[in-house]
Amino acid sequence: MNFSLISIDISLFLIITTILFFIGALGLILNRNNILITIMSIEIMLLAVNLNFIIFSTYLDDIVGYLFVLFILTIAATESAIGLAILSTYYKLNNTIQLESINKVI
Question: Residues 69-104: pLDDT tens digits?
């Protein structure tokens, strides 16, 4: 039997990316205490959008979606690196990374 991605319907992939996106959105909505989980939820949402770009680029046989994926991955990696650097510095100063204590400082 020949299993290829073309034989699988595109709606299955879109359902998977929608579920991933809503998992990330629920992580943002339900979690208001830990900033690491917030950053991970944003990353899950960005990866779901990237997967959508890849799916539609493959489906439409277009390269523009792949270019958007490269740009989004670059931005996501930069955002994670800068966010974690700020968090590690904040943790060294205050010994906590809870969002409630960060809001008190601001």
Answer: 999 999 888 988 998 898 888 888 888 777 666 666
For residue 38, the one-letter residue type is: T
| pTM (2 d.p.) | 0.77
Q: What is the 3-class SS of the chain, one letter each residue?
A: CCCCCCCCCHHHHHHHHHHHHHHHHHHHHHCCCEHHHHHHHHHHHHHHHHHHHHHHHHHHCCCHHHHHHHHHHHHHHHHHHHHHHHHHHHHHHHCCCEHHHHHHHC
Could you tell me if residue 1 is inside a domain? no
- Which CATH number belongs to the domain containing residue 66 in this structure? 1.10.287.3510
What is the pLDDT, as a whole number, of residue 102?
Answer: 63
Task: Provide CB contacts within 8 A for 80, sequence distance 6+.
Answer: 39, 43
Cα–Cα distance measured from residue 26 to residue 48, given in angstroms and rounded to the nearest whole number: 14
The encoded tokens of residue 77 equal 């990696």
In a domain, 43, yes or no: yes
